[in-house]
Every structure is written in C-alpha cells, then in structure tokens.
Amino acid sequence: MSPGREPDQAEPLVPRIDTRLSRRQVLAVGAVALPCLAGSSLLFGWLTDLTDSGTTENAEPITARYDPAAHRWGFVVDTNNCIGCGLCVVACKDENNVPKDPEYSRTWVERHTTTSDGTIRVVSPEGGINGYEPGAAPVMIDGSVVTDVRFVPHLCMQCADAPCVGVCPVGATFHTPDGIVLIDEDRCIGCGYCIVACPYGARYIVPAGGDMPRGVPGVADKCTFCYHRITTGRRPACVEACPVGARAFGDLDDPGSSVSQAMRDKPTMVLQAALGTKPRVYYVGLEREATT
Amino acid sequence: MHTNEPEPSGTDERPTVGDEAPSTDRPRFVLPPIDRARLVGALVKVGIIVTVASVTSVALGVAAFAATSAYGQYGAVRNTPNAQSWAALTPRYSEQAICTACHGPEAGLQDASIHVNVSCETCHGPLAAHAVSDAAAREGIPGKPTNEICVTCHAVVAGRPATFPQIDEAQHYSGGPCLRCHDPHSIVAVRPSIVSHPLANLPECTTCHAPDGLRKIPTGHEIVSDAICLSCHGQAAAGKR
C-alpha cells in the first residue's frame, strides 16, 4: 500500500463480488432445471426397463403359448449319479449345432480326483464328449490316498447377477424374463469381455466354418438351457439324454418339478458362491469341494 | 479522495481507480470500481446459467439418442425379438412322449425294464426329424454301434458310482454282441435264458465261470474242460452243446 493512503478509504485489492441472484434469475434456473431433472429420471427409468427386461413384470410373450414371467427355471446336477459317459455333451452339440471341435463346448464333464492331502485334480479330455478311458480308480496318487473320484458336469449357470451381462459393452448379452442369459448374435461384436468375465468358463467365441449355433461366426455362445426346448415344454437336450438322472431341469416355483424335489431331498450348493453371481444351477455331492 | 497523489510511475501496473486515472503515454485498461464488482457478479450468474444449459443439452442429447435408432438398423435396445428367435429354433432331440405315441409296445417294455429312466434318444440318437417326416424315418437310426453304446455307460471307469453296473471288458466275455446275452429293453437286464444256456457257440465254461470271472466259482473248484463241467452241470447247461 502506498504511503499516505487512508486505509479505510482504500479500494480493496479483491473487489466484493455480488453473487446474489435476483428472484427472476432463481425462477428462471428452476424453470430449466426441474423439467431437466424430471426428464432424466424418466429417461433413466425407461432405459433401465429396456435393458433389464429380466425384472419387468409385464414381459412380452416369447412364443404364443409361453409366458416367460410365469417360470423360474432351475437346474440340478447330481454328481453322485454322473457316470461320465459324455452323452450330454454329444446331445448338446447335436441339438444346438455347437462346433464339433472339442475345444468348443456349451457343456462339458470334468473328473475331479480328490486325494487325502486336499488336492483336487481336474481333467476333462475333449470336454468328456467321448467319455473317459476305462479303468479302475487309482488307490494312491503321489503318496496320497485317493479319497474321492467323481464326475462334475458343467454348463452355463444362468446367473441372476451375471458378470457377462454386466460387462457386455453393446448390450448383446441379456436376461430373459424367465431368467435365462441369452446372446443377441446381431449385436455381439465378439470383443470377448464376457468370456473373461465368466467365472465358470461357460462361453466361447464361435469359430468360422463348420457348425455355428446361430450361423454367425465371431460371436459369443454358451448354453441357453436349450431355450427353444424349454419354451415349448421340453427338457434341455442334455437332460433328455442323461441316462442316469444326473441332470434335472424344471420350474423352481412348481413344487412337483424334478428340480424342486431334488432341492428338497438333497443338500445342494452352487459353484463359487462367494462371487455372488446367484447361479441357477445347483450341485449335489460337491460338499467336499465347497471351497474351490 | 486521496490526500496524496500517488506518484505516477510506468512500473506501477496496478490500475488506478476513480476518476483520477492519470493520462500516461500508453493507454491503460481502466475500470471504475463499481463496474468491476458488477461484472464479476454477472460472470458468476452467466456461469450458473451455462452449466444448467449444458446439463440440459446433454440430457436432451441422450434422450434423442435413446428415442431414435440407437443401434442403427437394429433399433433401440430391445431383447424380446432375439429371445423369440432363440425360442424358434428347431429341436433335433424329441422327447419320450413323442416316441411312445408310435412305439408303444417297445416303450411299454422299456418302462418295465431297468432302463426305465433312460430316454429312447439316449441310445437311439436325436430323432425329432424322424418323428415328423417319413423320409427322415427311413434314414435309419443315428448313434453308435450297439456294443459301443453299451460300454459308453457300462465300462469300468474311475469316478463312476460304485453302485452303477460296470463291466471290465478284459474279464467279461466279449466274443459277440452284447445283445446276444443282454436285452436293454427287457424286464431284467440280463436275459433269463442265460441260466439255461440255450445259445449256440458259447465259449468255454471257464470264460465266465472262473474264480475271478463274471460268475465266480469256488476257488477250490477244479478248472477243467467243458465236457467234464457238463458231466455234473449238464442239466443246468442243457443249452450248451
């Protein structure tokens, strides 16, 4: 400050800013902002309805006689019964035009060999499509006693909180109102995010040439619970083909269905429950492997 | 207003105020104090209005994007048509009830057999086309040869439940088709006829009747030729000639 100035008369270095809005200005801002907020909330709700049809109650019918909202499908895999014949894998490939190459499977059968040291050895030669080599189970492996050998069929878990649906950048993977996760082959860009996101390894990218489930190469594909069968009153092909009843399919809301009976009669669990994916496929006989 | 006139200096960059702005060699940007305060206030108001307008235009843009063809030729995100196209695929596997409609007698046998819970198409292959088309019906039954089908399930394989019937092919008589002795549609899985051995060309008795064979004999039992077996067991083995 220059000498000689009266401090109380000096101009402040930073002038006082008049930020008060007049009544007219407040009303004007409100008139613009309120419709904007209302519009975006309506828009958000509408977009949510469109992209998450799995939660809408008044779902459109899938076929003339099929109301998707009236079903809650479930699948029970009883590993105590599975004999590892691979006929489910054969039936799945026949039914759904899945590529014949064993590398690509919508369903496959693993063999889990548990030893006394807690190790679980998992093999699945060619996805189990040709069954397993004959021979008795080994008594010892690497100095540990074999405590359990069982076959574990795998398929898409049709998770209620499906990671694959969440990561799809183009909305190609979606839930149907009856809880099945499908892939729109027209929208899918084959980026492979869903294949990485799926903790169950249920997805693959359809190779060009040969059998293609939707006739389109380069898109993701996976088990649909045979959506064309379950919407027309049939069971999935793998369930139809299983000779030992290791696979049960039905409506969890129907107390008489085979899945409801299995869920009542046997202790069931889901794979990798800690991930919170809420699978619709339940397993019997895997209690010893619950931590895997 | 000032008691002392500030010394005009070219190095003093602070704008002078009031109506006492000195005239200097070069022009200076001069604002009266009351105008400057009002200008800053107005700028803040303009900022608020611009912000609101930006948010509004972005929201309107998103709305327009969603309301029109968001994904070009495929329209906005609606999944029902695709789900309908999945549901419209043609099954290749039929179902038990469809088979039974025509093949009632066979199905009746099977219903009473040990394979009651095995679907027809598990062994006979996908036959939905066969059920609706006469031409497809004449193409024959798909699937594996009979023996292969049997051992697909009934070979000893590590991991199969102990209660499930399994055969070790090395120990089991494998000189002919499984169906010679076994009828998968029969009430009992193994033909009752095997007890009286009416079948021609059976192998040596000891093929099955060995201490470690399919039908075990006591270890003290002397393993001898068929002729000696039949001298005692002739009646039971009347069919074996």
Description:
The complex is a heterodimer of chains A (292) and B (241). In chain A, 23% of the residues lie in helices and 18% in strands. In chain A, the strands form four sheets. A four-stranded mixed sheet of chain A has the order 10-1-12-11, with helices on one face. With 292 residues, chain A is of the alpha+beta class. Chain A has helices spanning 23-51, 87-96, 163-167, 193-197, 227-230, 237-241, 258-265, and strands spanning 73-78, 108-115, 120-123, 140-141, 144-154, 173-175, 181-183, 204-205, 220-221, 247-251, 268-269, 281-284. Chain B is built from ten helices and no strands. Chain B is elongated and about 140 Å long. Mean pLDDT of chain B is 73; it is low at 192-196. The interface between A and B is large, with 83 and 68 residues.
Which helices and strands appear, and what pairs or packs with what?
The complex is a heterodimer of chains A (292) and B (241).
Chain A lengths: L22 H29 L21 E6 L8 H10 L11 E8 L4 E4 L16 E2 L2 E11 L8 H5 L5 E3 L5 E3 L9 H5 L6 E2 L14 E2 L5 H4 L6 H5 L5 E5 L6 H8 L2 E2 L11 E4 L8
Parallel strand pairs in A: 1-12
Antiparallel strand pairs in A: 1-10, 2-3, 2-5, 4-5, 6-7, 8-9, 11-12
Chain B lengths: L32 H35 L12 H8 L8 H7 L1 H9 L7 H5 L3 H5 L1 H4 L8 H9 L50 H4 L17 H8 L8
Helix pairs in contact in B: 3-4
The level of helicity of chain A is 10-25%
Helix-strand topology string of chain B: HHHHHHHHHH
Question: Segments of chain B where pLDDT lies below 50 for 5+ residues?
Answer: 192-196
What is the percentage of strand-forming residues of chain B?
under 5%
Which CATH architecture of the largest domain in chain A would you pick?
2-Layer Sandwich
Largest sheet of chain A: 4 strands, mixed
* Broad structural category of chain B: mainly alpha
Category by helix and strand content of chain A: alpha+beta
> Please, how many helices of chain B?
10
Give the assembly state of these chains.
heterodimer
**CATH topology-level name of the largest domain in chain A:** Alpha-Beta Plaits
Q: Which strand order do you get reading across the main beta sheet of chain A?
A: 10-1-12-11
Mean pLDDT across residues of chain B: 73
Mean of all residue-level pLDDT scores of chain A: 87
Q: What is the percent of helical residues of chain B? A: 25-40%
Computed over alpha carbons, the radius of gyration of chain A is 29 Å
- CATH class designation of the largest domain in chain A: Alpha Beta
